[in-house]
């Protein structure tokens, strides 16, 4: 059944998405959200957002927001660096990946190149600063709309939610402001229903949906592509079959999320009213005649 985002918006405002970011406070235990600090850097039409060091753990522990640029999910590079220096017994998911790659290399008969010399190792003080946590633009817009994010530019100027929206819309990350609005409406809908939403670019989709606990707890449950709900589909069936095959190979059901704009002349230079969007979702599965 198609449904507007009004119920999702209400749930996000009144339920855990607002309160889970709240630190203990005797005077206002639930009404004052924590303020996450982040800095937006822009170069030409590209942009990226880095979270301040003191707030990285809070974001990851309360919604799995952000990604360490040298890690697969949360920022574990510093821990792995200390492990290599101090020879500790702690084990990270990246260690498992590296172990598998080493085993595959050892199984090959191709000889290795000679060593090119010693590599200079950075000191611990430098290593602490080597892996910033980067916020996905949709994460940043979501946290900003909930009042949990203070995002400044490289000059230290505090950006309002509308200014942040315009910077993201003008970047090359999205084809247009309309494309951003459609993606953000779908993102907000999934977040409001308790899903942890991550980029699905490595599987050719828009989103990956994780259950409770996020990427640290389990693999993603669904792969999602987001489309504008129109009478003229912009993708061929060949593309859909190929994407479905990719998703089936990694055991992720494919969900097509259609987003209908409230009207054609919507002003998208400012953040839209998400309660006016209409969303439908369809689960796509490959037909197998041998399956009962």
From TrEMBL:
One GO-annotated biological process of the protein: tRNA-type intron splice site recognition and cleavage
Keyword presence, Lyase: yes
Top-level taxon: Eukaryota
Molecular function in Gene Ontology: nucleic acid binding; tRNA-intron lyase activity
Residue span(s) of domain tRNA intron endonuclease catalytic: 181-260
Signal peptide: none
Catalytic site: 210, 219, 252
InterPro entries named in the record: tRNA_endonuc-like_dom_sf, tRNA_intron_Endo_cat-like_sf, tRNA_intron_Endonuc_cat-like, tRNA_splic, tRNA_splic_SEN2
Keyword check for ATP-binding: no
Enzyme Commission code: 4.6.1.16
Keywords attached to this entry: Endonuclease, Hydrolase, Lyase, Nuclease, tRNA processing
GO CC annotation: cytoplasm; tRNA-intron endonuclease complex
PANTHER family in the cross-refs: TRNA-SPLICING ENDONUCLEASE SUBUNIT SEN2
Annotated family: Belongs to the tRNA-intron endonuclease family.
Function, as annotated: Constitutes one of the two catalytic subunit of the tRNA-splicing endonuclease complex, a complex responsible for identification and cleavage of the splice sites in pre-tRNA. It cleaves pre-tRNA at the 5'- and 3'-splice sites to release the intron. The products are an intron and two tRNA half-molecules bearing 2',3'-cyclic phosphate and 5'-OH termini. There are no conserved sequences at the splice sites, but the intron is invariably located at the same site in the gene, placing the splice sites an invariant distance from the constant structural features of the tRNA body.
Listed name of the protein: tRNA-splicing endonuclease subunit Sen2
Taxonomic source organism: Coemansia brasiliensis
